[in-house]
Amino acid sequence: MARITASVYTSHVPAIGAALDLGKSGEPYWQPVFKGYEFSKQWMKSHAPDVIFLVYNDHATAFSLDLIPTFAIGTAAGFTPADEGWGPRPVPRVIGHPELASHIAHSVIQDDFDLTVVNKMDVDHGLTVPLSLMCGRPQAWPCPVIPLAVNVVQYPVPSGRRCFMLGQAIRKAIESYDEPLEVQIWGTGGMSHQLQGPRAGLINREFDTAFLDRLIAAPQELSNRPHIDYVREAGSEGIELVMWLIARGAMSDVAGGPAPKVVHRFYHVPASNTAVGHLILENPQ
Amino acid sequence: MSLDKPYLDVPGTTVFDADQSRKGYHLNQFCMSLMKAANRARFKADERSYLDEWPMTEEQKQAVLARDLNRCIALGGNIYFLAKIGATDGKSFQQMAGSMTGMTEEQYRDMMIGGGRPIEGNRYIGEKK
């Protein structure tokens, strides 16, 4: 049977993608950001999964205001990196895993989560920047990726509690897949940041640190935090952090298994307007 | 019964909720059209005529022409959509975010390098700084 081996959490700041694509990663401004992912790139090589289930949000790229799905799973054979207005990122096409994605959609919908099934969509920096941070600049991504796009653009976005429960349903779905695939689940976005209005530039290190601590040790309790706490404390765009709870909800300990092992933790301010946070948690074998 | 909107007392912040989205639908869809290179070129060649193709309010059009992002947001714009205007102008996300704060580009960049805008004094409207 398939199983979840680890979860990865990371910010997906577009400027990080631009820095990589324009060869600026060695500049003093960017060095500390990429240094925090050196371990992660090595770890990806030694712990290469068969599939990555990647939770992210679309930033007015694949979904305009014509259609606003709360949770959308990509079941296509492939996904093209989008032109977000600056031209598409020069990164490999993302290969999907239609069989596993369809299986997960079927299982999770039967578990009362009404996913939107997407057979055609482009993917933006929300999905490709985490891949670049974890995999560098390869000719091809190391494995197929199943995108799960979460609406965190138009309020109300799904609650932390709902996200945490969806993660649990996704774990159940993956563990009921016949093929013995090793799957990683990634939660992306955040940490504290605000991109709009006179309060733009807000960063809350204390909030972020506590979020990381509780995500590791007390995720159930953390999932009960209301939206307003994120907006007020972590900035209007800090709400993206609810997506981390989907990945966390899919870890074994939430279903009564042993606690995950923290293999990497990193935090840095700033990348452009944003606090960068990153965690890798492994499920014990 | 009215809807619960506990975010209305967060200073300097407009939460893009369903009401804002309804007001800003055409403004945001105009922004979305700038994802195509051909539309960017047409917009740049004659901004006013391009805007007139959209059923936006005059106020929204003026806010776009003035690149007043705070005004655009008040009129229903969302920052991820408005960012397409910035991309068309060759502006970075940091330049766009900074433009809404009343700070110069350099001041804003320095604030971010110094750890960002502090949360203290920025939680509630009218809170003592």
Would you kindly provide a written description of the structure presented here, covering whatever features stand out?
The complex is a heterodimer of chains A (285) and B (129). Chain A has helices at residues 14-21, 31-35, 38-46, 98-110, 125-135, 160-175, 205-217, 219-222, 227-234, 242-249; strands at residues 3-10, 51-56, 71-74, 78-79, 94-95, 116-118, 145-150, 182-188, 261-271, 274-282. With 285 residues, chain A is of the alpha/beta class. Chain A has one domain (3-282): 3-Layer(aba) Sandwich (Protocatechuate 4,5-dioxygenase, Chain B), CATH 3.40.830. Chain A has an 8-stranded mixed sheet with strand order 6-3-7-2-8-1-10-9, sandwiched between helices. In chain A, strand 9 and strand 10 (274-282) form a beta hairpin. The model of chain A has no long low-confidence stretch (mean pLDDT 97). Chain B has 129 residues and is mainly α. Chain B has a domain at 16-89: Protocatechuate 4,5-dioxygenase, Chain A (Orthogonal Bundle), CATH 1.10.700. In chain B, 54% of the residues lie in helices and 0% in strands. Chain B has 9 helices and no strands. Chains A and B meet through helix 1, helix 7 and helix 9 of A and helix 2, helix 6, helix 7, helix 8 and helix 9 of B.
Keywords:
heterodimer, A: 285 residues, alpha/beta, Protocatechuate 4,5-dioxygenase, Chain B, eight-stranded mixed β-sheet, 10 strands, 33% helix, B: 129 residues, mainly alpha, Protocatechuate 4,5-dioxygenase, Chain A, 9 helices
